[in-house]
Sequence to fold (409 residues):
Amino acid sequence: MIHISGAKSIEGKQLDFTIKSQTERQIDATGLTIFPGLIDPHVHFRTPGMEQKEDWQTGALAAIHGGYTTVFDMPNTIPPTCTAILFQEKKQLIDSQLKQAGIPLRYQLYFGADKNHFSEIHKVKQTAIGIKIFMGCSTGNLVIDDDESLHAVFAIAATQNLMVAVHAEDEDMIKLRKKQYASSQHYCDHSRVRDVDVAARAVEKAIALTRIYGNRLYVLHASSKDEIELIKQAKVAGLPVFAETTPHHLFLNETAYSDLGGRAVVNPPLRTEDHRAALFRALRDGTIDTIGSDHAPHLPTEKALPYGQCPSGMPGIETTLPLLITAFHAGLISLERIISLTCTTPREIFGLEKNDDIVLVDLNKTKMIDEKNLKTKCGWSAFAGKVLQGWPVYTVLDGLLFELSRDQL
Fold:
């Protein structure tokens, strides 16, 4: 048993309690606040095919250091997870890597929508957390960029009662803008190539398809006030539409290109400050339902490549909770809302069973993000050097206690 004493709830009530475990431990949690084990509904742990960037040993270690005990992994791997056999093979690889790591991380997998494998979707309806549709190209070659195929996927998902999760960027508009910026050597032009209209048009199309077929829709990494307004209208109309945003869209804007260069390149791209502020308003008013880290590691050497060659994506699962708690200290969001966004609501949306996982957080602990102490294999963070207030100290996952480093991250 793990006996925890002196901890407090987010309301300030002192709690002494016990968690079932095969080991006997006494934890004096005086000064620590209890959070449930967090759920990250959007990670790319790169297995199979890109383990040089991340695998489930390093990804799981990064997750528990960030307070996350459940993750949903995306299908744009090598090969992409778009058949039932590949889906099962991926699960076997993950289970093997987690066993080697000694971390029983809870996970779910998305199934990738691919034009040549629509007949595979029904085979995973009991095991996949949802169908991932790339409406615009990102890492990998999964893309559904024509209306006939989009209608087909939404129709199939509806009959199989599967959530549709969309990377909502319009591929035709991206191709057109890429031609306009073909000679650009400026990372900041990424936000011009994939501008707000690119995202808004795709969100509008996805919502229209949900209106036709009645399926549940999960809009990944909403990045702009235009997307938020469309999502808000859909919710008011009673459509089963849910929205996620990311820590990088919440805490970075287009000015980050000047300092980060290629490390700031993500899909959808960083936006101007007015869009970033709109995302925080949407967190508070409930338009945004969840926060996914979109943990998408690439090697530093890859991110240092010239614009047009450097891949999109950044790591984030280790720093999401400290960023949010720092925002709490700044009066931008409540602790109750943080828990809702990172645990309660994703559990409800995706129908996950409750568990006894917890995270003990020191709300007042101040640390600087030091890249040499990160657990992600890629070894860098867009927030390196930033001092944050509020860090996980212990994570309890499936009855196992993980004591996190008290040194600077």
User: Anything to note?
Assistant: The first strand starts at residue 2 and ends at 8. The chain has a mean pLDDT of 95. Residues 280 and 332 are 7 Å apart (CA to CA).
